Amino acid sequence: MKYMKNKLHSIVGLISIAVIIAATTLVFVESPFGHGNEKFSTQYNKAVAKEIRASVLNLVAQDRYKCCMEEPCTRCFSKPGHQDEELVCECLVDLMNGKHPCGECIGEILEGEGNPLLSEYFATAIAEKLGEEHLDTLKEIIFEQYGMPIDQQI
C-alpha cells in the first residue's frame, strides 16, 4: 500500500512538473500580440512614427496641414479619412477664429509646446471647448507658459 502511495505521489509530481514546463513553454512561444512579433517591436513603432511625421511634413509643405504647434501634431492626420480632405489640419485656422484646436494641440498648448507667436489666441480658443468659465484660469496658464500678459490675450 505504501509503495502504491509513493508511486501515486511520484506520478502526481511528474504531472505537475510537466504542466509547469508546458505552461512555461506556452508563455515563451511567439504570440501575434507578444514582444517577439516584429509588428509590435520598438523598431517597427519608430518606423511608423517616422512615416507619419514625414507624411505630416509633406502636407505642411503642400499647405494642407495648418497646425498651431511649432512641431505639427499628428492628431488630425490620424483621423480616419482626414488625409483625403483638401485641408487635413485646420487647427491654426480654427485658433485664429476663436475656435478650439484638436485635443492634442490643446494638451500641448497647456504644456507650453504651442507656437509662442500665437499665444495671445490660445486661452480664448481653448475656452470655446472647455467653457467660458475657465477663461481666466486659461489666461493665467498661458501667461505662465508663454509669458503673454493677460491683458494682451485676445
Brief overview:
The protein is mainly alpha-helical and 154 residues long.
Word description of this protein:
About 4% of the residues have low confidence. This protein has a domain of 88 residues. By secondary structure, it is mainly α. The N and C termini lie far apart (92 Å). It is built from 7 helices and no strands. Helix 6 packs antiparallel against helix 7.
What is the residue-averaged pLDDT? Answer: 82
Beta-strand proportion: under 5%
Class from helix and strand fractions: mainly alpha
Helix/strand order, N-terminal first: HHHHHHH
> Whole-number radius of gyration?
28 Å
Query: Helical stretch count?
Result: 7
What is the first-to-last residue Cα distance?
Answer: 92 Å
Number of strands: 0
What spatial form do the alpha-carbon principal axes imply? elongated
What percent of the residues sit in helical stretches (DSSP H or I)?
A: 55-70%
The major beta sheet can be summarized as:
none
Low-confidence stretches: 24-29
Secondary structure layout plus pairing:
Blueprint: H1 2-28, H2 42-61, H3 75-78, H4 91-96, H5 103-110, H6 119-130, H7 135-146
Structural features:
elongated, single chain, mainly alpha, 0% strand, 154 residues, 7 helices
